[in-house]
Amino acid sequence: PPLSGPTMIQTALRKVRSTLGSFSAGTVAGLHSLSDSPPELWKAYVLKFLDSYAYFSFSLIFTLFLSDDFGMSDIEAGTYYGAWGALVTVFGLFTGTIIDNLGVAKCLRIGFVLSLLSRIGILLATSKPPLLFCILFTLPLANCLGIPVLTIGLRRYTNESNRGFAFGLFYVVMNVGALIAGPLVDRLTYFYNHRDDEDDAGEMQHQSTGGWAMTTNRAIVLSGVVANVLAVFVAFTVREIKVDADERELVPSSADEDYDDEGVGASSRSNATSGGGESTTGRRSGGPVRKFEPLKGSTYRILADTLAQPSFRRFLVVCLLTLNVRMVFRHLDGTLPKYMVREFGPDAPKGRVYSINPALIIVLVPIITASTSAVDPLVMIHNGTYVSAI
Q1: Who wins on pLDDT, 9 or 193?
Q2: 103 Rama sector, left if φ>0, alpha if ψ -120 to 50, beta otherwise
Q3: Spatial contact of 223 and 184, defined as CB atoms under 8 Å apart
Q4: Which pTM was predicted?
Q5: DSSP secondary structure of 181-219
Q6: What are phi and psi of 284, to 5 degrees?
């Protein structure tokens, strides 16, 4: 017989409670599985949070900054916004071989230093040429040496038993950075929009004479610079390591005593092969860790090997098919902030409205993941595109 209304509600509530219970148990188990991970894993999360804040806070005011501080039209600002994102992808294709040769640690240092210099250049720019040089060259180059490199590092800092949870937490950390960026952008906007009249008059005088002044948008860029400075310090403490595939394998404890400043054991260094690979360095944080030697190779060979992999080609096709659907997300920071300012005034809560999306992701993704664990990922992507399109 068909279920009555109250019975259906009770059944639904039981399913929700069961899902939440499974999610809580899975979260506890997942965090426990990461307890023996090397410090580099947690540094990767810190770097992801700092980089996410710097990225999302700047993307929120990107078009506003170009129009308000440099007098660009909507079409100009939108074109440069699109070019910035496209160049991250273009540079990523050409720097992929550099990442393979240099390794994660060196690329993170180069990427975050370059990102810091780019954001400082954007902060101090008073004319279009240096601004566009930073936006269209140094910043996208820094972005492609940061975000994908952290993903590679995460794979090396985990093993098969905890890698899935580690990547899920990585995604949550990114959205926490976006979530915090929104309210802070609104707070800085409100503060600088309501300074006393004397400061406002001085700012307008500087702008009219082509001088530099701390505007609302520059203050937000400055907050990204601060986050980037912290990221640089963290990046320079990251070692080039890889977690052993077998987390239960133990390395003799005497190896721990041979660590130098980079966490590489003297005995293992003498056994490292000159052609690249892995060498045992000892046990850190309760888990075996190996020094990772990036394998060297020509750009042509690395690209050819990558393109020859069927899994890479399938992944590329999926990305191309979902490209238009994911463009919806770019509306949130490419056009929505400027629209809200013009429709609701300079104090419009564009950051808080923007934060609704990462907040829902943080809450719903673990629940949906736990309740659809038996569904094929490609099926979920297929169905998710319909939801995004709606």
Answers
A1: 193
A2: left
A3: yes
A4: 0.76
A5: HHHHHHHHHHHHHTS-HHHHHHHHHHHHTT-----HHHH
A6: -125, 140
